[in-house]
Write a structure and sequence with these properties.
By secondary structure, the chain is an alpha+beta fold. It has 2 domains: about 110 residues, no CATH class; about 130 residues, no CATH class. The chain contains 2 helices and 20 strands. A hairpin with a 4-residue loop joins strand 12 and strand 13. Helix 1 runs antiparallel to helix 2.
């Protein structure tokens, strides 16, 4: 078995995954609340060709002789850097400045988290209003409940403070708190969150439990911006450079396979 063939093949497979990751980042450059990903690599096992021993004169050799057997993808990490704030015409657009996440109730009853604050008011079937995302999933308050109003409220008069408190104007036109706030949650290790698609994340043992910003004094509270949305944090220039590097690495591994094939062909022709 020729080691170089298999080592180069693992390199091509790893770089293909790298290109797939970069392509996904570029495809989501305009997705609200999207967080970029980066592929990480690790080397495979090393084969010992010669162990550390002594020379014929009895002198110790300082090192052994080992050859690597290729590479593989170890993980694909999410980068949770702050995205740009994009102005929006909608009163139910909210951008988060800070480390917080919105909480969303999924169709399966579980709670998921997102940075996509493109929300809307929808009827709940009982004559009331409920705050949902664009897929119709309810947004949760800081108390873990759905944000529901009765039909007497005019939605375009509702405002939200930077702390997420929902307000409605009184008879004099001054916004008054409604004893209800949009929930913002943080995680000790956001890199441990599991992607669920549609810019949703689910908690895991690696991420830890969700920390409610309203009740947890050990976190720096995020700031909410109404009529703004957080854009993707993907940097197109960086991704294009990474794409070129990945393409060249793929080509070099392909060249290694071609070179090995030519060497095997030369060895095969020696007996003729």
């Amino acid at each position: 078995m020729v080691r170089s063939l298999w080592s180069a093949a693992t390199g091509m497979n790893a770089q293909q995954t790298n290109v797939d990751t970069i392509a996904n980042n570029l495809a989501n450059v305009n997705t609200v609340g999207y967080k970029g990903q980066v592929a990480q690599f690790k080397s495979l096992l090393y084969q010992t060709l010669q162990t550390a021993t002594t020379t014929a004169n009895g002198d110790p050799k300082p090192t052994s002789s080992q050859v690597g057997l290729g590479v593989r993808n170890s993980s694909i990490n999410s980068i949770f850097s702050q995205g740009s704030m994009l102005a929006s015409e909608s009163d139910t657009s909210f951008g988060i400045e800070g480390a917080g996440f919105f909480a969303i109730r999924g169709n399966d009853g579980n709670t998921y988290y997102t940075r996509n604050g493109d929300f809307t008011w929808a009827t709940n079937g009982g004559g009331g209003l409920i705050l949902t995302n664009q897929d119709g999933l309810p947004v949760l308050s800081s108390r873990g409940r759905t944000i529901t109003l009765n039909s007497s409220y005019v939605t375009n008069r509702i405002s939200v403070t930077s702390d997420g408190v929902i307000c409605y104007p009184d008879d004099t036109g001054n916004p008054q708190p409604m004893d209800m706030a949009i929930g913002l949650f943080q995680f000790n290790n956001p890199a441990g969150l599991v992607r669920k698609g549609d810019t949703l994340w689910g908690r895991s043992d690696a991420s830890g439990a969700a920390l409610n910003e309203e009740t947890n004094a050990n976190v720096v509270r995020s700031k909410l911006h109404q009529r703004y949305l957080e854009g993707s944090n993907v940097q197109v220039a960086n991704e294009m450079v990474n794409l070129i590097v990945a393409q060249r690495a793929y080509e070099m591994n392909s060249k290694a396979i071609t070179t090995t094939d030519e060497m095997m062909q030369t060895a095969n022709n020696l007996k003729r």
